[in-house]
Structures are given as C-alpha cells and as structure tokens.
Amino acid sequence: MAYLSSKKVIGADNQQERLKIANWICGFVDGEGCFSVSIIKNKTTKSGIQIFPEFVITQGAKSLPALEEIKKFFGCGNIFVNRRYDNHNEDIYRYCVRSLKELDSKIIPFFSENNLRTYKQKDFKIFQRVIWKMSKKEHLNDVGQKMIVDLAGKMNRKRKRF
Q: CA–CA separation, 44 vs 95, rounded Å?
C-alpha cells in the first residue's frame, strides 16, 4: 500500500483513494487502536504528577508493514517492539504518537474529519479535549490538571485514576 503517503488531492480518483485510506485507518484504529491519557506520579514536578497523552495502534510482527504504512501516512510517531516471552509466536509492535504538537496538528485533525465507529469515538472526543487543554498549557496549573485527570478517568472504559 505505498499509496498511503500521497497527500495531494488532484482528481476524483485520488479523492476516492484518500477516502479508502481514511476508512482503512479508522477501521484499524477501531479494532486495534487506543487514545489514552496516562497520569504518572513524578516527584520532580511541582504538582507531583505528569500527564502523558498517547495515540497507539498495536499489531503482531506479521502485520508490521501495516503499522509502517500508517506511520508514513501521518508522518509522525514511532514504532516500538514489545518482546513476547510467553506462548505466543510473535512479538507485538506499537505505533505511538506522543508529541503534543503532532497529536494536535496531525492525529486530532484526521480523526475529527474521519469518525470512528466504535466506543473509541467517545474516547477520541475526550482525548481531543485533553489535547486542546494541554495546548493551552492548562495542564501546568492545579485546576487544569484536575480537569484533565477527571477527563482521563472517563476514557478507556472508565479505568480508575489515582
């Protein structure tokens, strides 16, 4: 799928191709993706916590080329290997975007224009609010941090935070 890196929309055929790619990526994320906001205790920060937003897609080693195509399409992020030491036959790979700037300029606009079809759309909307607040530096004050922690607690099937 080398055509994923094409960002130019010249004619109807190219526009149709981009729509197919967008649908493919959304389907992939609906099945194997995650928008998350981790709250990590850190004694070196003023508030004692750090906020880490992250967009991730995971796949087994056999599907690594798909993650590479998605990385090429977005033009950002990294792919990491999680070595398996259990009874599975292949390692797991994670495509991750952690940069606030790239989340705000590439990931958020894409998923704002291309809706997910599972509960992950709700997680994305919350994630989008967190990124917006962080881009306005609200995560650097106590009130903003509390709001972000509360929002993060509503994501990913309401996992408990702190």
A: 28
Give the closest residue to 37 by CA, choosing from 153, 162, 160.
153
pLDDT tens digits, one per residue of 88-118: 778 899 999 999 999 999 999 999 999 999 9
Q: What pTM was computed for the model?
A: 0.84
| 74-87: pLDDT as tens digits | 999 999 998 766 66
Question: What is the gyration radius of the CA atoms in the chain, in angstroms?
Answer: 17
Looking at the chain, list the stretches that DSSP marks H as alpha helix, in order from N- to C-terminal side.
12-32, 64-74, 100-102, 108-113, 120-135, 142-152
- Give the residue carrying structure tokens 């920060």: 45
Q: Which CATH architecture has domain 24-152?
A: Roll (3.10)
The Cα 84–Cα 81 span in angstroms is 9
